[in-house]
Queue: 2 jobs
Job 1
Amino acid sequence: MASLFVAAIVVSHAQAENLNRVLETIENQDHPINQVVVVETGGDQQSTESAKRHGFSSVMAPDVRLGLAIQSGIDSLAQAPGWLWILHDDSFPEPTALSHLARAAEISPSVAIIGPKLLDARNPIRIQQLGLTVTKTGRPFLQVQNEYDQGQFDSSGDSFAVSTAGMLISLDAWQRLGGLNDKTPPLAQDLELGAKARAAGFRVVVEPKARVLHHQLSASGKRDRKWLGGSLTQAISKSHLHMATLLSPALLVVLGYLMLPLIFLASIPVLLLAKRPGRIFGQLKGWLWAWGTISSRLAARRQLRGLGSVKSLGGLKAGFSEVRKRRKARFSQEPMRDSDSVAGFFSSNSGWLSIIVLAASARLFPQGALLSDSLSPIGRSFDSIWNATAIYLHGGSIPSDPFGQFYLLMAAIYPQSPSIALASFVFAAPTLAFIASWQLGSIFFQKIWVRSLIGLTYALVIVLPAAMNLQIVELVSLTFSPWAIYFLIRASRAYNNSRAWRWTGLAGIALVLVAISSIVLFLLLAVVSIGLGIYRHRRSLIILAALIPGAALVSPWVIWIVKSGNWELLTVSAAASSGPFQFELGNPVVIAGIIILATSMFGIFRGNLKLVSVLTALMIFGFAAALYQPWVSSYPLLGFALLCALVLTGIGLDSLNLKRVSAIFGAVLFSATSIGGLYFGALASSQIDFGDDRLMPALVVAASEVSPNVKTLKITAGEQITAEVIEGDGISIDEVHFLDWIQPSPVQEVAEIAKLTALLVAANQNGVAELLNQTQIDFILLEGEDPLWSKPIESSLNSMVQMQPAGNTKYGVLWKTEVIKTQDVESPPRDQIRDLMLLVIAGFALLAIPTTATLRGYRRLEVGEMQ
Amino acid sequence: MRIAIRIQIALLVLGFVFASWVFVPQLYESRTIAQNEATETSVDPANLQLVCPGAFVQVGGSDGTYLGAIERLPSAIVNYHSTADSLLSEPEATLIDFGLFEVQSSDQSTDLLNANQLQEVATSRASGLAGIDCSMPKAAGWFVGAEASVGTESVLILSNPNPTEVTISLEFIAPSGATQDQVTLASGETKLLPLAKYVVADEAFAVRFESNSSEVSATMQSRNTSGLTATGVELSGAIAEPLLQSFFPGAKDLTGGYQLPILRVFNPGDVTASVEVFAQGAGPETSLGVHELEAGEIASIDLEVPIDATGVAVVSTQPVLTAVKNFVVQPKLDFAWILPAQEFSELAVIASPAENSVLSLANPNSSPVNVTIQAGQVYQTFELGVGMMLDAEVPKGSARILSSGKFVANLSVFADAGYSVLTPGNNQNLGSNLEILVR
């Protein structure tokens, strides 16, 4: 058979050692090569000398662009060949490669481009590539990828395109097609060339018998990113966009480019769900690149269409089934067992112990709104809580309590009755804390009984008292801080970045709840995060990202504190916080804490020294912070310190090898924990009442649903007459803000209310009408248990002509006034800051949602490759 | 080496805990949220109204046999003291139906207006002196002196001085059980309710009234007989609320042991009350015994008051309603219901309706007070020690009592027609110097 007149063009980029090997393989070809030119694009002199040593010519290309480099090589040829054999400095053809390629060229005159079978140079029995194509949308797709070569693909056939690594192309075709377009993204150049050849009527085939070993330096990130124009992922995205522009109908192209911003926005939640948040920036860059280089895309499209019809390309694109099959293959690894734990929470039957905690919390079983002297119901609807918990109050002058967003969460969980949601949380909190501390224990302890014991102790002795005393703010911190620590540690130890992001998403949400309930504890956990980031520095950014939503939510509060210089308020996050914790020996929690501290000594002497040092330091920090309580309880910090002490205790117990000693120790501690559970739970003296979540008489509530600016003057009759203006349907706990408490009301308002109350009490009509109109009071509510005081005032009110009796209610005696409403309450403007914060939290929520792979226990191959 | 580090860590923990427990609480003070201070504001109070209940009510006709016959026996005589330039309303000097005093002033007290009525009753079935302090209308109150056994009769006199109709709920609590009723009074209407129909011949029972809207005048008329002999009449006002401590100046044995004073006690609460009675006079007080009253129990206790005592005081572990029935035999058989004396601060003015009136004073404070009584041109000054009661004779006319502290007072009227005790009240509406705490 006649030999083709072939010139080999080897494109090299400062890979002298590889180049030398390539040149040797060229020398070993059994098909004659008339000319060999080495085109050095990296300015490496060694490459030039290597070419000289082999007796080949070389040229220095002006830059890295492949098309220009190849053209430089063509231009340097002494004679115009019939065919060009293009090789890269990482492609090593077998001795018979060229001859097989040439035979394919000779068999069919219409064939203009022939590509070899590319095999992995590190593992020659694996097929790296056998032809290139695109998906229906234009995304680059390898027809064969990472398959073992068992001869199953050894029949030659048409392909959409072939890689330039080992490509044999007719010079005529090269010239007619204009060669490689250097304005095209590098990973799309081969595809565009193949498409142009097809459009011009040429055939592009793969010849599997021609075998070339390929290192794939570019795709594996071993080349300078400048060549790819960014990361591999970005390069693939650009190629996708380019090919879609070339191949899609014109209308779709126009619509597609116009919709790029929407596509970018839509990709954000998708990428968060896929645990690839880093790609969001890449998506943005891609969109901007697309709009910025649209002229080049359109020029390439024009050129392609000018060569002929692209209809024939449809049959060569990858079908949906191929794409789906390739996606599944990414999860083809067996589900991995987590080697860190012996058994999980449920598989170890520790889940049954939750019943103990639930039983201890039985008195808290939700039967209505929780009521106590220190806790009034929260708002009755999502809307009312939304309005009450805006980030800033009073036109932006002061920030609202950060903890208000927790009430919003309760309202989001059960909008019809947020009070029930809150009551349910209080009931479930000790159990959640038990599960959290058990899971946290699974990181430190091997023995199941130790995890269970530590979990029960934390739940029954530390968390349960807060629940029984309806200390909502402290309860949130105590429940979610162990979760936050657990998620942070899991993020630092995750198998891959995607898994780490998922744990970070969960940690972010848990840290939000900690931040809004205890800023100081959040700061302490931030220190823990930084420590974990330093310990696992590769994951540091991912771990620290967990702090973003919490920091965002408390930032208005912190900024205000910094501006006002009132640093003590950093210890406060809610008006509903309890008073300072009583560090007295008479406090049962203090006694329990002393016992826990004593048992932690055991762990200090038995555990790993580094771990013990860290835990001890955290315990001391937590305890030190807990002692400073200028305004409200620091119980969450004390709880954190005791949690560290419990972990130390658990470490000590876990190290016990003598079964009998372990059994005795365990039994004693378990009994003590159970007693604690009974004492703090079923036998606790706390007053827990459930009731209606209504705060005002039904008439007032109904009126406030119609009009938002209903005001009620509540007069409490007694030795001290008290007057209070209540807006709307009552002051629920979400409407009480700490900074309002410490800032006095405007003097004029107080004087007006006092005067009006005095006139009403004294049954003096003079000026009542004017004051009612000034203060816009719609209802008067008289309460007072002592009839000695309440009856005379009731009689006074009954004698006032402006008062219409509205009946006796359980809240007191009610009158409707004849006020002329003049004030229109404007709807509060949209709180854009909160919208932004909620968006950030939503992002982390998306990160937290597990992928199907995670649920099935599969692990994704992390190598960036084309589909 | 490692064990040394561990020991150091353990000591660090223990040392830190100990040191911070001891020292840190001293370094700062926990803040408390400052409460708003009460705003003092003065407004003109409502007009001061005093209602005199009117003349004695005769039930059943002159011989008591006419069924359904209820009529008033003329006339009650009104006495009053006022420093107002003019009164908005002033009843006749003699009353059949109720009489209304009304005065407008921002500074209200007994000095502004104080009134009472007295009536000498002398019929075959009723004999004695019926007197009562004309008091401010009330929205609710109690009577513990109601009786419906043989030889006793109680009539409830309800008057509505308001311009609008009012409905009054009545509750009768007797050992035989409790009953309720409701009466409606038009504006200016008076209803006379013999109470025998509400109870089953109970010797003693309590009555509670409550208005649904405006305040009303409520008075209890009591009549005693012994066989065919009339042994006394009295009018008594309502007690506002149960108290833990009550003073009865003037409650003493005026019969030489013939008929001891009777303490009527009613425990309206849910818990057993322990009641101790003290006799007070010029010297140290004397305990007259402790009595246990179960929830809802009403008891009548004879008081063996020493001869030198001026009155009694009652102290209870639970709020109770009390009154003392005091008897005289000379010049006529009569009795008076002595109600818990009202507390005055610094000044009280009482219109003494008769020459032989005795002002009885007590000191409810924990320290002595100095008291000066001015009646006409006569001044009497006393030091009233803790737990002391004393009497002072005052002539007819205004008696002004000035004190360095709080005191309580009753006025006992002795006349040929009989005996009555007037319990003056604080004639003052809310308005002046009100302290309103605005939250």
Job 2
Amino acid sequence: MPEKYHIKTSHVLPRLPRIGKCGIVDWREDCARCHNCVKKACVYDKYREENTFIRDLDEVHTLYYECMGCFSCVQNCTKNLLTLALNSEYQKLGNEYWTPQILSTTWLEAETGKVPVSGAGYRGKFSGPGFDSMWTDMSEIVRPTRDGIHGREYISTSVDIGKKPSFLNFQNNKLETVLPPLISIPFPVIFDMSSEKHTLPVLEPCIIETAKQTGLIAIIDSKKWKSIKLHNIEQYLKNIAFFLSPDGPQIPKEILDKTRLVEIPDNKNIEQQIASIKKNHPGIIIAVRIFMDEKVVKRVDELSRIDIEAIHLVADLNGNEINAKNPRFMKEIIREVHECLIKNEKRDEITLIAGGGIGLSEHVAKAIICGADLVSMNLPLLIAIECRLCESCRPGDYCPAKLETEIDLQYGGGRMTNLIGAWHWQLVELMGAMGMREVRRLRGDVGRAMFKDEIEEEIYGPIFRK
Amino acid sequence: MGRSLENKINLEEILPCNTFKTRVPQVEVEKNIKPAPSRYRNEIAKYLIYRDEEKCIMCGTCVKTCTKGVHVLKKGYKLFATSLSYTCNGFVCEKTENFCVAKCPNGALRLIKNPMMEVMGDFRWTSDMILATWRMAETGEILPEDSDFVYETGDSGGGFDRIRIVFPDKPAKVDSDEIDISLELNRRNDGRPKIKIDVPWYGGGMSFGSISNVTQLAKVRAATAWNTFSCTGEGGYMERLRPYDDHMITQVATGLFGVREETIQRVPIVEFKYAQGAKPGLGGHLLGTKNTPAVAKMREAVQGIPLFSPFPFHSVYSIEDHMKHIDWIKHINPRALISTKVSTPTDVDMVAVGSYYAGTHIIHIDGGYGGTGAAPDIAKKNIAMPIDYAIPKVHNFLSAEGVRDAVVLIASGGIRNYYDIAKAICLGADGVVVGTAELVALCCLRCSRCESGKGCPRGIATTNPELASQVTIEWGTQRIINLYNAWSIGLKDILRRLELKTIKELRGRTDLLIHLDISKKQN
């Protein structure tokens, strides 16, 4: 049995006041002074905490939004003076795809490293666009499930990047096939480059540190390489994959040789470029970065006919097709690309990495079910360090999350590592429910999922289309 | 069931010797419908009426105009008492002669929608649905026709929330009093009791630990009054439940917490819990903070330690193993009916058929969006199919297999009101199990804090004695009795309007339903 993958997490408090969903509107001026104040009886002692918070406050405009929303004080106030209100700051968080709910969940995971748990059943929409239109399966009687989740058995989340030969040649009891390089990482996630919209000098060192802590890989734009300030950078190279930007500086050979993966943008001379890199760095795996646009399947089809090891499909930040009038969501594109590779009998020879709209741990499992080997993500790491996705991260602009200067490795790396720890446990939970031991086996196993359109047609079609 | 069983069968002949000797007298609970107002000082109102004291001339026009008793001017008082805004019908009144705002001669009144409605509730249980359930639990009546609450559906945008019952245009000729909504739970003709419940629903399994002992008692007392059932969940069998044995279902779940031969012999129905809708495929989890000395004693565990139910049953890896389980219980308790509770994987139909052949009397499918207890958020949202799809899938498969009428199909996991019950039965269920709705009747507002720290701040899903003391057994019982009464009235009214005389006739009548998206596409 392989060594168990364990991410060491520890509580990392937020730097800024929390942005909760609701707060109490307190009409103090009409108070009856009844000495029977419901505030004293708050089950969570939030009023007392609020007093302390206000006393120690260094910014007058910050409000206290830690109310748990139980309405007990509202309903017990002698004069009915209290009102619960939605926090408008909370409602403004993120955007249509990166909802306030995703941001607050990510913050909780980054703080605690634990699986978010709540009571009272599911509270959300029946289904939604994107990954919300599919459910994962569960098994009534198949192992490993709880045993795997609690460590008595092992559910493997390891995946491989690289080419896997479909057969081996032996001659005189000796292996003749030259085995191509293969990278195994313990969790099916790699960290993508930050988008141009979200460029902060503090980000890369924290991401690289997290990659090291979690045993994963961070893709770093070669243009940024020289500006990254990390003590003893050599120790991180195993966890770095350079994106060889055409207009970026040359990465020194001795540096590149210590990495295991590089990424290059798709271009017309891709075959020659791959050959050139392979000639100088035979042990390195090369991934080709392709945007998920209308031509993506055709392009993957072409690429699959040349000697290629990994394809990194990238959608826009919301997981949508790029430059399309009616963009499809990445899950549809992943399914098509996966099927194309199967058709070309190349599925095990080419690793498929999918990225763009991966925002929650459930998206990892769902993207893999659709056909990816692993996923890439970046924005959740930024959110983990309390980014609010206000889209104003440009040098000189005010950052409400104070990300320009205040981040140190212990905080940033700690929060990001916690996030990956929480995601890892959640993937194990999903796989446990499915009765699966290995995430490799989940790839393209659409039988382990229910797609809303398909199930609705199958079950409701005959009933309501009569 | 208790009454009918005791009347018809000599218990000495069917109960194991020790059970007969230790059986305590069974308590009857009267099904009286009486007001059970909120236990909170301030009722949450959908609309707020503001009175400008400077403009008000105390003429009392508003008191005379309002038919809902919103404005209170007590005799001998010079000022109005606080408005009973929660009885206000809101802007529905605008079109009537009873709109106090328009009638006020000095324009002193102002009506607004309470901004707290945005904070309260969620897509599945909207604020309207929660307030309407509270009102039904308070009065025992369905809401009047002029009510402004939209409580028949939630706002989730799919499943039951997009399905509507199509009522005929012509006036119904059936009288509500003639309508029978009782449900028989044994269709096997295997010599075991023909248990019949008066309503096509019973209470879901919630353990002592996940909810307080007061809540558990209130649930079973209401079930007794309505001649239906409540379930222990998997946290053991409280001694205080014994006077209600004849209305209890005891659960044999993977943790086997508190399960003893003696507890299995007490009850008329034993439920195997393979999975649950709150966290399909993941087993149970009671957080350490809720594992108080009393809970630990009941579960024969150590106080303060988180308690996990392993998933799945490690003694069951096939339908044959499941059959052995059922045979075991049938042997221990010769009068028991067996219920098999499963969640809703893609092959839920196969699971149901297998369970039938293994000998179960009741197949209980618990959909992925259900549940009341603590669960990982990722499981609640993502694992297993919603019950809205699973019901017709299982019903059709059982029918095709030719065994549909030999087994009872019970659905749960998101059944919120009597409209959902009717839709579930139209789609193919025989009856339903309810859980959250009972808790909402006790003033739960789904703040989802039942898992953290001491548990529920509203005193319902907690084991903290101080918090639990907010609810009394009598009040809790009455609230649930009232809710059941309102549902019973509502469900009978649906049948009356459909010109059906029994709930049986509704089963599988998908022709009475439309889906707002799919049926519309067809047109």
